[in-house]
Amino acid sequence: MGAAVLVPASSANLGPGYDSFGLALDLHNRFEAQLADEWSVTVAGEGAGVLLTGAENRVAAAMALAFLEAGRPELRARIDCVNGIPLGNGLGSSAAAIVGGLLLGQRLAEADFGDERLLELAAQMEGHPDNVAAALLGGFTVCWNADGAVRAARFEPARGLAAVVVVANGELATSESRAMLPDMVPHADAAFNVARAGLLAAAIVTARPELLGAALRDRLHQQYRAAAVPDLGALHEILHEAGAAGVALSGAGPTVIGLVPGDTDEAARAHAEQVAIRAAGAVRALGSRRAPTALRINRSGARIL
Of 283, 273, 206, which is closest to residue 244 (Cα–Cα)? Predict the structure, then answer.
């Protein structure tokens, strides 16, 4: 018995939505699994030769958690991963592995946990819910904590939105990036983010691209994480000048994301491709980044194939 799942990348925080907002992107990891006597994992694409290939692999660990949840802890699997999401770059590679493993484990154990329980299990493994919610549900997601329980709401992004991502050559661990944040922030900064977060959600859901520049501004995390992403300011300028409506650090970084509008999804994707082309030379001159990549917004979330 086997199963396969396709899981999208995700960009979390999106400026002011620290640990709350997520946006799914059309860049994927594909995981396939079948029941076996022992755990084994093969990896192609991003992370090949680097990621663990036994029971400690993140996909295998998530499958084992699903088997336990289903009351079948004795199950094991052979897993094949084809990864398109870069590691350690703020595009949700860890979240994709966790969501993929949980969905495969649920399928092979012939269980059905429901999205709410899947989100709880994924957030438990990831340590925060924003990336896993977007990877699981697709579209634009907002997460919160309700009396100790993780909750998420999915919203359909308005048609006519795409993204340009600029991935770094190196990685930045989320734990390292979080360690840069202060324990307390000024009340004025918190108020600044409340306003911008509301503005950003409205801009994404109601197609108000003229608001994205102001909406993606933040005072809770980006200014502190800039120490680990020294080209962040330069990339803001490069992507704005190339035509992005708004720019932010993707997740904990170091990837930087620009949001690009258009009259339709196809027009937005074409516009994003032009932004990527116009930004390519300046990005190359930085010497620290891959070429800019245009991506559609993913609206389906993780899906069993």
Answer: 273
Backbone phi, psi, residue 109, to 5°: -85, 0
Q: 294, 27 in Cβ contact below 8 A?
A: no
Q: Which amino acid is at 195?
A: A
Domains of the chain: 2-155 (3.30.230.10), 161-296 (3.30.70.890)
What pLDDT was estimated at residue 285? 97
Contacts of 29 (CB under 8 A, 6+ apart): 6, 7, 9, 45, 46, 81, 82, 83, 84, 85, 93, 96, 97, 100
- Using CA atoms, how far apart are residues 213 and 203, in angstroms rounded to an integer? 10
CA distance 225 to 230: 9
Taking Cα atoms as reference points, which of 134, 136, 127, 140 lies closest to residue 101? 136
The predicted pLDDT at position 178 comes to: 87
User: Over the chain (305 residues), what is each successive 10-residue block's mean pLDDT?
Assistant: 95 96 98 98 97 97 98 98 97 98 98 97 96 98 93 97 96 86 94 98 96 97 92 97 98 96 96 98 97 98 96
To the nearest 10°, report the CA torsion of 238, 243, 249, 250.
-130
**pTM attached to this predicted model:** 0.96
Distance CA 168, CA 302 (A): 25
